[in-house]
Structures are given as structure tokens and as C-alpha cells.
């Protein structure tokens, strides 16, 4: 089983990034997938969730209206489109999901002012 995130980087405040998480080793479409983020000294925070078919989504209040979670079950990939980024969005972003709640290695997102 693998979850591999990509797409992080350095962006200016107000900019956009799209994160991807490619999954393998389990029946991707059968499971909800989640994006979390974590900054040093803080607990991991749930950012967004998407159901197996993509029909249901959840967003943390802090990102609602700015972030969009989506998935392509044909590609076993979940995405997080992040717009209007703020400095407080700076964190390591992780995807999570699967039958044993697997984690990816994380991708760093840094938003500069």
C-alpha cells in the first residue's frame, strides 16, 4: 500500500497550488480519502474529506470556500485544489485513507507574505 503526495511548494499569499495523492494497493474507490495538515508543535488538523464516489465532501471552516477536494477513481488519485492561500495555510499536508487508514509521507506547502 502506498499513498504518495505531490504538488507542494512555495507560493505567495493569494496564490494557488494543487496537491495530488496517488494511491495503490487497495480498492481506492471503496474508501473515503482525507487531507490533513500539520505545523510544528501542533496536532494534525483535518482539512478536507471526500467520499468514495466523490459525492460527499467535508471542509474545515478554516479552508471552506478556498479549498476544493476531488478524486479521480480511474487514476486512484485524490486532489486538493488550494486557492487564495494564506500564510496560515503553511504546513505539511498529508493524505489519508484506505482500509487501515494509511498515511502518505506528506508534502510541504509554504505560503509567503
Describe the fold and architecture.
- The structure is a single chain.
- The relative contact order is 0.33.
- The strands form two sheets. Strands 2, 4, 5, 6, 9, 10 and 11 form a seven-stranded mixed β-sheet that branches. A four-stranded antiparallel β-sheet has the order 1-3-8-7, with no helix packed on it.
- With 113 residues, the chain is mainly β.
- Strand 5 and strand 6 form a beta hairpin.
- Helices cover 0% and strands 52% of the residues.
Explain the layout of strands and helices.
Elements: E1 2-6, E2 9-12, E3 17-24, E4 33-38, E5 45-50, E6 57-59, E7 67-72, E8 77-82, E9 91-97, E10 102-103, E11 107-112
Parallel strand pairs: 2-11
Antiparallel strand pairs: 1-3, 3-8, 4-5, 4-9, 5-6, 7-8, 9-10, 9-11
Characterize this entry briefly.
The chain is built from no helices and eleven strands.
Structural descriptors:
7-stranded mixed sheet, 0% helix, mainly beta, 4-stranded antiparallel sheet, 11 strands, 113 residues, single chain
Runs with pLDDT <50, length 5+? none
Structural class computed from helices and strand pairing: mainly beta
How would a textbook summarize the main sheet?
A: 7 strands, mixed
Fraction in beta strands = over 45%
Number of discrete helical segments = 0
Basic shape: globular
Alpha-carbon Rg, integer: 13 Å
Helix content: under 10%
Name the average pLDDT. 97
**How many β-strands, per DSSP?**
11
What's the N-to-C terminus distance? Answer: 37 Å
- Element pattern in H and E: EEEEEEEEEEE
Amino acid at each position: 500500500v502506498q499513498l504518495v503526495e505531490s504538488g507542494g511548494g512555495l507560493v505567495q499569499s493569494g496564490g494557488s497550488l494543487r496537491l495530488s495523492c496517488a494511491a495503490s494497493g487497495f480498492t481506492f474507490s471503496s474508501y473515503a480519502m482525507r487531507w490533513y495538515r500539520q505545523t510544528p508543535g501542533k496536532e494534525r488538523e483535518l482539512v478536507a474529506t471526500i467520499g468514495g464516489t466523490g459525492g460527499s465532501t467535508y471542509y474545515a471552516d478554516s479552508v471552506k470556500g478556498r479549498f476544493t477536494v476531488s478524486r479521480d477513481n480511474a487514476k486512484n488519485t485524490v486532489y486538493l485544489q488550494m486557492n487564495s492561500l494564506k500564510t496560515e495555510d503553511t504546513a505539511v499536508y498529508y493524505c489519508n485513507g484506505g482500509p487501515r487508514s494509511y498515511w502518505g509521507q506528506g508534502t510541504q506547502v509554504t505560503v509567503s507574505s
